[in-house]
Design a protein that fits this description.
Layout: E1 2-6, H1 11-28, E2 31-35, H2 37-40, E3 58-60, H3 68-83, E4 88-91, E5 109-112, H4 125-131, H5 140-150, E6 153-159, H6 162-167, H7 174-186, E7 192-198, H8 201-208, E8 216-218, H9 227-237, E9 240-242, H10 247-254, E10 263-267, E11 281-284
Parallel strand pairs: 1-2, 1-5, 2-3, 4-5, 6-7, 6-9, 7-8, 9-10, 10-11
Amino acid sequence: MKVIVDLAGGLGNQLFCYCFGYAVSKKTNSKFVLDTSMQDCGIARELELLNFNVDYSDRISYVYKKGLVDRMFFNKVRKIKSIGIKTRIYQEKEPTKFEPEAFEISTDTYFKGNWQTEKYFSEYRNELLKMLVPKYERTQSVNGLVDEMQKCNSVAVHVRRGDYLQIGCQLSMDFYDKAILKFQELNQRKNTVFYIFSDDIDFVKQYFGKYEKKIELHYPQYESDNKTLDDLFLMSHCKHIIMANSSFSWWAAWLNQNENKIVICPELGMWSGDFYPEKWNKIICE
């Protein structure tokens, strides 16, 4: 039996799809197959999952074309030929809501969705942590930052703007003010350093400037051949994290192996329900 998973979205969503598929294949004793067709055709975002030491049985990739006739007919034919004519299609019903019936399969199944809850794969956490490590050699400056973060009470703060400004789902910065106060209530150690990660560094430097005499702030600068993965790696190695409303920073929090970590996250819209683990500290946002 085969479990085939369509890889969706950017790195954070690709990780959700992968971990979901890994768990279903383990539970059902099935072969685990990745569908990377959209990434390989340049239609979806870059395929970054394979920069990790991930384990899977096979990978399929069919040609997807944008022409009208292709979209109406030929793409569907190519997909069916790739996944198998008898393969069942399982479409996720509701984002960020756990669907236990996804494990109840008895034939080759193609899964399409985002699968954004750890309830699918938390029992395989130890196995996944071993695999979800970048397999390329990190620069000396990245490794130096990791050492620095381990020597203090480090807090990653992720502020996502960029594409979020264009689609109108960026967080109000009021969340970060509340989150910093919340963290200080929960953790009163004196050697706390807040490491600010953002795709709009000029903006965050200006905004968090009001805190410069109150808390210690660092804006990590480092040499990198893959800044997306290195940002994720560095955030996950801080001892605590203040998240954005982002699957990317969700993974930075989940991959953090500090047993006493404090995770502070925004609860709003689709970033609610089963999306966050119960132990994470949620702040309701408007």
